[in-house]
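Q: What structure does this chain adopt?
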Amino acid sequence: MVKAPTRLNSILDLIFTNFPSILLTRVGEPHISDHSMATAILTLTEPRLKKVTVSFNDYKNFDYEQFATKIVSSQFDPNETNVDTLTHTLTQAINQAFQSTVKVKTATFVPRPSSFSISEETRILLRDRDKAYRNSDSSHTHLSRLVKYSINLDRKNSLNTSIQKLGPHKAIQRLRPMKKTIETQFTLTPDEVNDYFVSITTPMMVCSSFPKKPESLVTPATHFNLRKVNSSVIRTVWKTMKNKSSKSHDTLGCSNWMLLHSIQAPVICDQVLKIINTSFDQLTFPACLQLATVTARPKVDSPKHPSETPPIASLPVISKVIEKVALAQLTDFIENENILYPGQFGFRKHHNPALAQTASTELMY
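A:
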């Protein structure tokens, strides 16, 4: 509080208050300033939030029986041997089945920050804190700390209640929007980002000489060749796929979630199997699967240089299946032929840091 005159004989020169009546009840004669007193009331109104209209696929009301009927009735040319044509035909069949089954809905809403309910104890503390503030009571500081602690406790209780009611997975999906997001001001054009990452790769960066092969490694007697697979291999590989419930579309309009429900049908599984075996037999990778959706992910809030926007490529779903089948065969060949050095523990199955430490200890002692 002001204890000495700030302007001539006046104790207070300017007052900001949310309670205009204080000027009549708490401040009396003599005048509060050597100027003529004027009262101004400032009314603040909360800005209206704009409505947002979005369209989305109604996956909750997905008709599995109708979709299964559409998928089973799909027909493919058994004499086709072009891998690109086979891939396009497969993705078109899956897309047509989903477009006729999944309905597109629109929703209009007002985006509001997520909130949580406070307890009655917190409300009482808030009233006591405000009352102490108006009366200039010294307990205001202590009550403010209690209010802050009580609000944090209510927030934790609200999160625990959501987890117990919805389960961990659904609770995380609902609580994730509570995190404050910062809108990125992206001022770079796609051409600027592309030109930068193309220019930083030069022929001088390509390795022209390879390290000498260790003498302890034996050259395998057989050469590696991709073998044809059966439907059981496709199902086994699909189980190891990550994010099978992802609904983001690739360059062919297909998603992990779409293939998850389609590959269970024998006609779709046989078509995927035919694409893989034809690709292995002809030693060609489908050109349509070599295109990826590249997204620039800024590392800072307002990127000003292309180096601050590392690109992330989203590959087609079917290409990931082909790569995993080829990787499984290549890994088996390397392990069976003992091509890798026995002391290599990185990037190998059943080789963890604990085994590397144990091998080092046995070698020393």
